[in-house]
Amino acid sequence: MKEQNILFKGTKDGVTVVVNDDTDYELIKKAIDSKVRISKNFFKNGRLFIDFSNTHIDKIVQNKIQEQIFDDFQITMEKVEKTKGRMFTGIYEGKTKFLSGTIRSGQHIEYEGNIVVIGDINAGGQITAEGNIIVLGSLRGVVHAGSSGNTKAVVAAFSLQPTQLRIADVFSRAPDGKAQKPKCPELARVKDGCIVIEPYAPNKFFD
Question: What is 3-79's CATH topology?
Answer without folding.
Answer: Transcription Regulator spoIIAA (3.30.750)
